[in-house]
Structures are given as structure tokens and as C-alpha cells.
Amino acid sequence: MAMFIIYFAALLILPLWAQSKVKSAYKKYSKIANTSGMTGAQVARKILNDNGMYDVRVEETRGILTDHYDPRSKVVRLSSENYHGHSVAGAAIAAHEVGHAIQDNQDYAFLRFRHALVPVANLGSNFSYFLILAGIFMYSNNLLLLGILFMAAAVLFQVVTLPVEFNASNRAMDQLVATGIITNSEERETKKVLNAAALTYVAAAAVAVLELLRFVLIYLNNRE
């Protein structure tokens, strides 16, 4: 019973803790202006231009922390506050999303692998629990195993996302420093924003792996 309590507590606490770290870091550093005085849109555009990626557009999108790179449309989309703002957080996030655009431009292997996993990961997310629950209630180990395999595909997607995100953050730091957008005194604050954002992906992957292991143990127990 104690193990189940710890397990479910981890499922609840890890994502909430990661989200609180992101919100706290973003709230703090979105109020601190970057010394270059550049908006997030200008930061993104400069890094893209410096890398010869003139075909990638920079657009504003609604919401808070909805920033992302769309590889299909070749667009870096920044939330309004980061698009127009001059903050350390806005510059860091803009550079991170451009990091994904650079990965796409350079055929970064893990990004390509993650894209290839999307269809199978979507299937896993949509059908794994249905198959697992059907297997449990119908006492069918075959259905349970099929559900676990579907879930494993979704979990693999989460795990592969980690090197993609960390690499984008590393590229962001390199570009921000190389272009002179941030000074040495701002590197520490910028890393805090990027590291806090990375925690959400680490927490999501950890929760997904824990959930997969739980069902694998159920399957093995049923076989015995």
C-alpha cells in the first residue's frame, strides 16, 4: 500500500513541481529587461538571419507560454508577451524555439526520429489505456501486452523529446552569446529560464516511464 501511495504521489507531484518551477522562473525573468533591448521577435529574427534561415518566419501567437516552432510551416511562433517584450525570459524562449528551427535545418537526428514517432505515439496515446483496461477486466494478457506495446511507443516519444529539448536549449545559449544578444552577466539568468522549461519535459518523461513500468509489472504478475 505504501508503494502505491508513493507512486501516485509521484505522478501528481512531479508535474506540478515542474510547472511551478517554470512559472516561477518565467514570472521572475519576464520582468527583467535584457540589456540588448531586443524583443523576442527581434531576437528570433536575428538568430535566424545570422544562420542564413531567411525563409523561416516569426509570428505572434495567442496565449501564455504557447511558444513553439512549426516544422511544417517553417514558422517560429512566440506568445504575445515574448514576441513584443524585451525581457531576459522572452529572449531565452525565442532563442530556444529558433534552436528547434536550426535542428530542423540541419537534420538533427533526434528531431527526425521524434517526427517519425509522431503517428505511432498518437496511436499509443489514444488506444493504450483502452487496450490495457480491456485486458485487465477481461483477464486477457494478450490485450494487456498489446496495450503496453502501444503505451511504450508513446513513452519512447517522451524520452526522445528530452535530447531534442536540451539540445535546442544548448543551441539557444550558444547563439545568444555568439550574437551578443546577452552579456556575461545575463547568462546565469538565461540558463535558469531554459533549465526550468526543460524540467517539464523531464517530469513528463519520468511519469510516463513510471506508468509504463506499473503496467509491465501487472502483466508479469498475471503471467505468474
Quick synopsis:
With 224 residues, the chain is mainly alpha-helical. Helices cover 75% and strands 6% of the residues.
Explain this structure:
With 224 residues, the protein is mainly α. The chain has one domain. It has seven helices and three strands, in the order ααβββααααα. The protein has helices at residues 2-29, 40-50, 80-84, 88-105, 109-137, 141-178, 184-223, and strands at 57-61, 68-70, 75-79. It has a three-stranded mixed beta sheet with strand order 1-3-2. A hairpin with a 4-residue loop joins strand 2 and strand 3. Helix 2 packs parallel to helix 4 and helix 4 (88-105) crosses helix 6. The radius of gyration is 20 Å and the shape is elongated. The mean pLDDT is 91.
Strand order of the largest sheet: 1-3-2
Instruction: Please indicate the count of domains.
Output: 1
Helix- and strand-based class? mainly alpha
The helix fraction, in percent, is over 70%
Q: Give start-end ranges of low-pLDDT stretches.
A: none
Task: Supply Rg.
Answer: 20 Å
Mean pLDDT: 91
Cα distance, first to last residue?
A: 21 Å
Order of helices and strands: HHEEEHHHHH
Number of strands: 3
Main beta sheet:
3 strands, mixed
Shape, please? elongated
How many H/I helical runs? 7
β-strand percent reads: 5-15%
InterPro entries: Zn_peptidase_2
Keywords: Hydrolase, Membrane, Protease, Transmembrane, Transmembrane helix
GO molecular function: peptidase activity
Protein name: Zn-dependent protease
